[in-house]
Amino acid sequence: MSTTPVYPARAIVDLDAIRDNVRALRSTAGSAQVMGVVKADAYGHGLAPAARAALAGGATWLGAAQTREALAVRAAVGPGPRVLTWLYSPGAPFADLVREDVDVAVAGAWALDELADAARAVGRAARVHLKVDTGLGRNGIMPGDLPAVLDRATALQSEGALTVVGVMSHYALADEPDDPSVKMQTHAFDEAVRAVEAAGLPIEVRHIANSAATLTNPAAHYDLVRPGIAVYGLSPVPQLAVPGDHGLRPAMTLEARLATVKRVPAGHGVSYGHAYTTTQDTVLGVIPLGYGDGIPRHASGGSLGPGGPVLVGGGVDDVAAPDAGLGTARVLRIAGRVCMDQVVIDLGPYAPEQAGDVVTLFGASDGLTRAGAPNAEDWAQAAGTISYEIVTRLGARVPRVYVGTAGRETAGE
Ligand SMILES: *Cc1c(COP(=O)(O)O)cnc(C)c1O
Q1: Same structural domain for residues 43 and 190?
Q2: Digit-coded pLDDT (tens) for 201-258
Q3: 394 belongs to a structural domain
Q4: Measured between alpha carbons, how far is 105 from 86 in angstroms, rounded to an integer?
Q5: Residue 46 CB neighbour total at 10 angstroms
Q6: Whose CA is nearest to atom 6 of ligand 1?
Q7: Any bridge partners for residue 309, and if so which?
Q8: Domain residues for 126?
Q9: CA distance 28 to 377
Q10: Which of 232, 261, 277 is the last residue of a domain?
Q11: Which of 336, 405, 297, 355 shows the shortest CA–CA distance to 8?
């Protein structure tokens, strides 16, 4: 890693935080195993390093939505850890999945047939998880359709083309643990498990819990839990708890170096549409990050909303630029429109900042980042979304810089 701060903006990803978060989730999950969910490039954190760090924390399974992601996970971690994929359309690369020892969740009979064809061609049984819709109303087998799917599955299993190893489902309102739908879905899940067992298919793992259910609902743990957002140290239930309440810490810090700092007079419009106008003679700072990098345009400020928060000044415990940014620490809000490549902040009339100084959009607040940095949840609130979207949409243009050692030296520490 270069120690020269030549980046305009970067995301620092703390692999030890990912490891420690998985450790915390393991202890919460009790006897259940933990699947680290690393879909969508590990929620923007980087699939391969995040997957290895999750294994270092004790995850025994890794989960991805798409098949190509699952194959990338296998390539990153090698043989051994179980890998599950659950979202694809007809014509998916089932032969590759079977060959690479990836478990496949099935939500309809057509997928059993395609998977069995691939397994025959590869010459090895496919491992299947039956994905049941217990009330989410999304992907999954409706309970009424389960008997027909089980007929097909038992036939293919006795032929040796596949082995049903799991039954899985997903909650609609896991983040509202007291909602009656949670208990209703758990009940429907138990019924589905009974039906699969009654069909003569012994089940290795029953799993239904995402992060919210893992952290708030022990009755949902079963044999395996599937946390995603919590692995990255963000709260799945921000209205109930901050990450620290669950022993989690955010893994990603997003920072940038001011591209321009300049003095403007009072009454000067700022950015497209002039949604912000200076009220005094002041200093503007330009941050080289915009919606092309995943900064939500809904986080625009001035007359458009509160604006996304940015920590400016205060000296920097920055890993690459220890001497940058010596002004008073303060959290400022985006002034005016978020553009494709840049946003502007009003640094105030006495700003000592200079071009090149580091500002932090959100951070871990654990020593890697300057104390008092906003977090991804603050950005979610400013943009009317959830923290998932803030980190996951961070664009490919923003380099990820990895700190920490988890998952880097030994594969199965
Ligand atoms: C994304 C996903 C998860 C993880 O959800 P979080 O809320 O991020 O914990 C678990 N299971 C399935 C099926 C998913 O699609």
Answers
A1: yes
A2: 999 999 999 999 999 999 999 999 999 999 999 999 999 999 999 999 999 999 999 9
A3: no
A4: 5
A5: 21
A6: 228
A7: 333
A8: 15-232
A9: 23
A10: 232
A11: 355
